[in-house]
Amino acid sequence: MAILSTLGNYKNTGLLIIRLALGAMFITYGYPKIMGGPEMWRGVGTSMNHVGITFGYMFWGFLAAVTETLGGFLLIIGLAFRPAALLLAFVMLVAALHHYKTEGFMSAGHPIELLFVFIGLALVGPGKYSVDKR
């Protein structure tokens, strides 16, 4: 089909759509965690138990919330894109481990998927329509 053969011309548009959608979702996930305050941060931070970190839960929870919110914004504009994608991948790794160890493999599926999406995005880069374009 002729239309399918031309879709390769829109790689940068595809990356932009992915960046906008994921960025908006992560701002939506992260901002309420920031606004939730110390109790929320401590709750989120306890997930670090699953990677062997058993201290500073409030700090780690706050850092995860800021990473989701600021990382989402950076994805949208395409600034510091690769570091943001890798930090979000790490947050998804911790989330996947948390869900796997507390609820089982099936509940870890979404964070695992996002982990690989962020690794792939870090490898590919933000595309032409970004502040970091090269």
Automatic annotation (TrEMBL):
It is a multi-pass membrane protein. The keyword Secreted does not apply. The chain crosses the membrane at residues 12-31, 51-77, 84-100, 112-131. It holds the Pfam family DoxX. Keywords: Cell membrane, Membrane, Transmembrane, Transmembrane helix. InterPro entries: DoxX, DoxX-like_oxidoreductase. It is found in: Cell membrane. Its main location: membrane. PANTHER family: INNER MEMBRANE PROTEIN YPHA-RELATED, OXIDOREDUCTASE CATD-RELATED. Belongs to the DoxX family. This is DoxX family protein. It comes from Olivibacter oleidegradans.
